[in-house]
Amino acid sequence: MYQPKLGFFKMYKEEVGLNPNVGNWSWLLHRITGLILVFYILMHFFALSSSVGGPATFNAWLANLQTTLTHVLEIGLVAAVAFHLLNGLRITVADFFYLTKPHQALFWIAMVIFAILMVITLVVFLGRAFSPHH
Questions:
Q1: Strand residues in 33-134 grouped as ranges (E)
Q2: Which of 53, 54, 91, 122 is 20 to 30 A from 103, comparing alpha carbons?
Q3: Of all residues in the chain, what percent are helix, strand and coil, respectively (each to 5)?
Q4: How many angstroms separate the CA atoms of 53 and 43, rounded?
Q5: Rounded to two decimals, what is the model's pTM?
Q6: How many Cβ atoms are within 10 Å of 98's Cβ, its own excluded?
Q7: How far apart are CA 127 and CA 134, in angstroms?
Q8: Within 13 Å, how many C-alpha atoms sit on residue 14's CB side?
Q9: What is the torsional sign of CA 119, 122, 125, 127?
C-alpha cells in the first residue's frame, strides 16, 4: 500500500538513501544547484533594481558588494552554474542519443570537465577574492 512521504527533505534523504548511486546523487545535486541558481537570479534582479535610483545608488550598492565574502560566493556561483550546465548537458545527451546505459561514464566525463573549470575559476578568482584592493 502506498504511503505518502512526509516532509520535503525527508523524501530526498530517503530517495538517495534507498539507492545511493551516481544517478541519484547527480539528480539531487542538479535540484540543489537549480534552487541555488533561482535564489541567485532573484538576488541579481534585486541588485539590478537599485539602478532605478540612478548611477550613484547603483554604484553605492556595487561598492557594498566588493567584499571577500561576495568574491568567495562568486566561486560557489561558478561551481553551481558549471555543475548544473554540465549535468544538464549529460542528461540531454543521454536522452536524445539513447545513451542511458553509459550514463555513469558520461557523469564522470562531465565531472572531469567540471574539475578543470573549477581549477581555472580558482586561479582567476582567488587572487581577486583575497586582494586588499577589491
A1: none
A2: 122
A3: 80, 0, 20
A4: 17
A5: 0.80
A6: 8
A7: 10
A8: 8
A9: negative
